Give the backbone structure.
Amino acid sequence: MDTNRHKRSYGSARLGQRAFTLLELLVVIAVIAVLAGLLFPAVQSVLERAKKVQAKNDVTQIVTAVNAFYTEYGRYPTNAKSDAAAAYGPGNQSTNNSLLNELRAQGTYSLNTRQIVFISPANVKDENNPHSGINGVNGGYYDPWGSEYAIALDADYDNQIASNPYGSNNGAGPSPIRQGVIAWSLGKDKKLGNNGDGKFTNSDDVISWQ
């Protein structure tokens, strides 16, 4: 019996088995990569929808808190005398921290004399890159994409917000807006409207009054 020939045949068979197993592994990896590529956009879409739901809940809670403040004190949580001066957040004169301090009875506040907590958002996880909560550094309330929520109040008490931030009939209703308080998020692109065009139609913005 040729033992050397038998050893060579056995060794060749084992090499063939190892090569076949490696090939299978490469195929599996390729299939996983293809599936991951197909699933990634779907996962991103789901995550984006979840952020929009959170932002909608947040702006609704802001409006509810401001209205509760009005019910309690008979005024809005601002010293401004005009609607233009009572607009807070991106694109406005003031950041939203002064308004949120009043509603949270935190930091520097003067109007919430009974120290009532009307809203209590969570703190952001990273103050250097704030998302979804209160930034402990400046007290601002941030949306899931990292921009402050914008808020406007009826500071002259004529039962309307004088100016719709999206203009008149650009997808966000008429101007003026017949509400005492509105809040909105600039969405993923962090620009007002569709990539900064100022129109709500086709934008990724989230607003409280629709």
